[in-house]
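Model: Ready when you are.
Researcher: Fold this.
Model:
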Amino acid sequence: MAKFNFGKKTFQQFSGVFFLLLVSQFTTLLHAQAWQPGSGVMDIDGNQYPTLLYGNGQEWMGENLRTTKYTDGTPITYITTDADWMAQSVPQSFVTPAFCWYENDTLNKPIYGGLYSWYVTDPGSNGGKTVCPSGWHVPHSTEWNSLIDYLIVNGMTYDSTTNANLYLNKLGKAMADTAYWVQDTFWTDVPGNESFLNNRAGFTGRPAGTRGWSDGICTGIGYYGTWWDSDTNYVPNMPTTTYRMLIYSAQADARHFSKFWANKMTGCPIRCVKDSASTGMQGSIQNHFRVKYYPNPFSTQIQITDPDATTGFYISLLSANGKEILNVKTESSSYLLNTSDLLPGVYLVVVKGKTTEFFKIVKE
């Protein structure tokens, strides 16, 4: 049994009870520190959306856009027939920014949102209008990449490792909702396998499908979800751009939150991100109640400060599975923790001063 020596008191790590409590609190902490609920936002139609505050300074909508108007009140062209949708792709110079509900069924609206052509997102194509609520915009690929990098560093990958990259990011399950996905028992660590383990990142990605640019047919509901980038062109001199995609299963790539390209007249969902450069959730120095720690993520050292503990405090460092790695008593209110011997990953720090606080740190 490991001992946590905090001043005159000793906390025994009895098999089972304390360990399970700590691991449960640690799991909750992993989620809570990666994102927090925002105050929400409303579009021009009066639709309300939950929002997510991420520690990289971004605030995202937690649901797909379902507005029928631009923010100035102008209606977005609603196309119902496959032929009319397909006709917008040829010739490209006469394209009409448009949207639809999947298979024109309004019952899909509250669950999956609308399917919008990329031209709806582009002020150069829609007459200088914006489709996201005032103060929000369609994310650029750099903003998607920032979110992906942040979630990787914070251990949101399906195996909780932090050594993934933008393309093999292991975030498929973390970004996917726990419901609506076609189930698959063959491939593991994908949105359609053990879906109850999905959505650690809070993004609540749903398989809304798409509307095809070449035939106007809606396909893919339950199987994949897509979200537009605001990037202008993917292939030079071609009407293509990029979008982000989740796939239920059927291939190993479904383990990732992937980037693909499509014709701009494809109907895809939209997520909006707030214009502000920072949500105020996390600054360069993170504050968790009283204790401050910096930097996080870190490479070899992290500074931990308890301003109320002028005569020192106790620090315990635990691995993600609850194993105690280090137990030290500081001599002042600040301590430089040397972590050069630690492997990259997510760790838990328990600080005992006037009160006990714990927080997550990430070794790069």
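Researcher: Now this one.
Model:
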Amino acid sequence: MRCFFQPTKCSNLRISRKRLSPPCSYSLNGINVEVVISEKDLGIVIANDTSWKDHIVMIVAKANRMLGFLKRNCAGIVDSTALLSLYCLLVCSHFCFCSQLWARQSIMSNLLLVENIQRRATHFILRNSNLLYKVRQIKLKLLPLNYWSEYLDLVFFFKCLHGHIDLTREFSYYFFFSKGQHVPCFIRAAFKD
């Protein structure tokens, strides 16, 4: 079975930290592939300078829309646990998607954009209470979003360490794996006494 590419649907994204990378042009079936500075793939915006600002702006915009939706349509709900469940389901899910990829590499000012949404959401859930943000978080049993992303990183690492994610298939060209083992040698070596 042959795989045919549509040149008009393909794009050329060159990822580099250099200020000026040498231009390369590619063509498929005699048609030049468009050169782009950022590309959205599987819901993640990847930029050519490896910054995640565009992606964070996109997820903050999505989360703002969902929080506005909740404020408009759930104004009559007085139960804070129901509002908290809706917030976690509809808004936080945008922050958690692939956070292992973008959250750790982001600068603090970008992560504060994300945290401000949770700040406004806790204010809405507790019905405009005058409590401090940290007190609202404790009352609602919410972690700060940077702690939550670190927790997701640890869960991902645990799954990789114990073979719940088969890294041999995805990264067989990049890492050396022991025969019959699902855990890369460099991870196992780090935990030997």
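Researcher: Key takeaway?
Model: Confidence is low (pLDDT under 50) at residues 182-193.
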